[in-house]
Amino acid sequence: MVSVVTGGCGFIGSHIVDRLLAEGHKVRVIDNLTTGRLANLDHQKGKENLTVYQLDIRSREEIEPIFEGVDYVFHLAALADIVPSIQMPWEYYSSNVLGTYHVVECARNAEVKKLVYAASSSCYGIPDEFPTDENAQVRPQYPYALTKRLGEETVLHWGQVYHLPVVTLRLFNVYGTRSRTSGTYGAVFGVFLAQKLAGKPFTVVGTGEQTRDFTYVTDVADAFYTAAMSEVVNETFNVGSGGTYSVNRLCQLLGGEVIHIPKRPGEPDCTFADTTKIEKALGWKAKVSLEEGVQKVLGNIDYWKEAPVWTPDTIDTATKDWFQYLGDQ
C-alpha cells in the first residue's frame, strides 16, 4: 500500500506516519514545515519506505505528482491555533480550505481507496449537550474553527458528488509526544510543559474547573488507520478519550504551582466527545488513560525545552485580539 500524509512532519501526522510504516505502507509525506518539524521523523530516517516532500498544499501543481499511484490519503496539513486565525484569516482560509480543495482533487484524480480528513471538534463551538454527538449544532466561534469546518464540508461534498471514498474525524483535545512547540500561544499541554521545564507556574485559565476530553495521540493515529482500512465511507466520527478531565487535574498530574489568568470568550466550559458512533461503526475505542498519557509526555519533556515560556503578561499581550473580536459573541 502507498499512502500520502499531508502534514506528516507535524504532531499527529508524524504519529500516523509511524503507524503506517509499522503496517508496511510506503509513505509519502507532504509538509511545508510551517509548523511541522523534520525532527519529528528523525527516528524514521533512512527508511526506504518513507519520502518527505517539502511542499505546500496551496500549490496544486507542486503536490499533484505525489499522488500518483497512491492508495490512501491522510489529510492533516493545516494551520492551527485561535489567535493567529483572527489576525491572519487569509492564511488560514487559503491553507485549510483552498489547500483541502487541492488535496481532495488530487485524491479524486488518483482514484484513491480512501481519504481520511482531520476535522476539529471546535466546529461545535460551545455545545448545548455533553457528551456531544455528531448531530450537535455546528457553530464555529473563530476563523480556525470555521476553516476546519469548511474543509470538512469540502471533503464530504466530494464524497457525495464525486464518490470519493472519505471519512472525517472530529478530534478532541489531542495531546502527547511531539505536540507543537511553535511561538504561538496555543494548546494547554505545550504551554504547561514549557512552564514546568522553566520552573514557572502553570497559567490556568479561569478557575481550572473547566474540563477537556484529552485524547492521546497514538489513540488518534489508531482511529485514522482504522477508518482508512474500514469499508465505511462518507461518514463523520468524533474521536475522543471516553472521558473529560479538569485542567486542575492535569496540573496535579504534571506537578507544579498554579497561577490564574482571566477566562476567555468563545471557549466552552467542557469538551466531551460522544464516541458511540465510532465505537459501533469501526470498533474503535481509546486505550490510553490520562494518567498513562501524562507519564509518557513527562518521559519526553525535553522535547519542549526550546518552546516559549508563557507568563500572564505575555499571554495578555498575545490574546488581546481574542478578547477584542470574540468578547461580544
Helix content: 25-40%
Overall structural class, as computed from helix and strand content, comes to: alpha/beta
The 3D shape can be described as globular
Strand neighbour order, sheet with most strands: 3-2-1-4-5-6-11
Number of strands: 13
SSE string, helix = H, strand = E? EHEEHEHHEHEEHEEEHEEHEHHHH
Number of helices: 12
CATH C-level of the largest domain: Alpha Beta
Write the layout of secondary structure elements.
Layout: E1 2-6, H1 11-22, E2 26-30, E3 50-53, H2 60-63, E4 72-75, H3 82-87, H4 89-110, E5 114-120, H5 143-162, E6 166-171, E7 174-175, H6 188-197, E8 202-205, E9 211-212, E10 215-216, H7 217-229, E11 235-239, E12 245-246, H8 247-254, E13 258-261, H9 276-282, H10 290-298, H11 312-318, H12 320-326
Parallel strand pairs: 1-2, 1-4, 2-3, 4-5, 5-6, 6-11, 7-10, 8-13
Antiparallel strand pairs: 9-12
Q: Which features characterize this protein?
A:
329 residues, alpha/beta, Rossmann fold, UDP-galactose 4-epimerase, domain 1, two-stranded parallel sheet
Fold and architecture overview:
By secondary structure, the chain is of the alpha/beta class. It has two domains: 2-174 and 215-239, Rossmann fold, CATH 3.40.50.720; 176-212 and 242-272 and 288-326, UDP-galactose 4-epimerase, domain 1. It has helices spanning 11-22, 60-63, 82-87, 89-110, 143-162, 188-197, 217-229, 247-254, 276-282, 290-298, 312-318, 320-326, and strands at residues 2-6, 26-30, 50-53, 72-75, 114-120, 166-171, 174-175, 202-205, 211-212, 215-216, 235-239, 245-246, 258-261. Helix 5 links the parallel strand 5 and strand 6. The protein starts with a strand and ends with a helix. The mean pLDDT is 96.
